[in-house]
Amino acid sequence: SQPPQRQQLQIQAAQLLFDEQQHALAEELLEGPDWAYADANTQAKRAILRARIHSYFSEYNLALSRLNNKEVQRTLETAPMELQVEASRLRASLYAATGQAIAAARERVYIDPLLDGPVAVLNREALWSSLSKASRTALSSAKNEASGDWAGWLELALLTRENQADLDAQLKALDQWAQRWSTHPAARELPGGLSILRSMAANRPQQVALLLPVSGRLADYGKAIRDGFMASMLHTRSSGGKVPVLRQYDT
Predict the structure, then answer these.
(1) 147-152 long-range contacts, Cβ below 8 Å, gap at least 24?
(2) What are the percentages of helix, strand and coil residues in the chain, rounded to 5?
(3) Selection from 150, 154, 137 nearest residue 110 by Cα
(4) Which of 205, 171, 204, 203 is closest to 190 using CA atoms?
(5) Strand ranges (DSSP E) for the chain?
(6) Which residues on neighbouring strands pair with residue 250, listed in sequence order?
(7) Is the pTM value of this prediction over 0.70?
(8) Which terminus of the chain has a smaller tally of CB atoms within 10 A, N or C?
(9) How far is 247 from 20, CA to CA, in rounded Å?
């Protein structure tokens, strides 16, 4: 076949090889100088497939460099929306794989309005997973420059880092967030178990039994756990939070 049909067929063949776990052969088909004759859509598909192959071989940074190449970026800007979404989802997973949690979450926020159904649910779960792995400092820094839904996601993630030992304070902060961000995508279905905070607060235990070995050969381990538990409880109490009656038993 002649260009550009030749390159279109090469993409199809490479995709078939990739699906059959023939990654090295697929990569061979995507090399060569004749790709300069490919149309824009084919170029976009090639960049995505090459990045997937690199990802398969755990070459995450190389895969990112393929997708973030300026020429590829320009090509993707004019590509069909489904290709742009596919590239963004792949880029987000690569950011996550390389420990760039904020970049991964931001990429998923960008494509969130373009998704629906189960794909949208999975995207938001992955988005929240990335935010949960980001440090408080990184979240705060990103929030200073954020706007729109992205700012709402960052504020929600920061909220979960505050008052972790005080369920009532966290619930109050969550209610305030929901009022400020009533139209936010996360307000319709709170991520990460936040939706059960109210139930947790209503059904919290009044007494807790702490059963640990604080004598004998395991005493050092038991005391370390006990001290950590007590420190958290005292911190909660000093902050005005409710704490249960604690009974300790030496096992």
Answers:
(1) 149/109, 149/112, 149/184, 149/185, 150/106, 150/109, 152/177, 152/180, 152/181, 152/184, 152/186
(2) 70, 5, 25
(3) 150
(4) 171
(5) 207-212, 245-250
(6) 212
(7) yes
(8) N
(9) 60
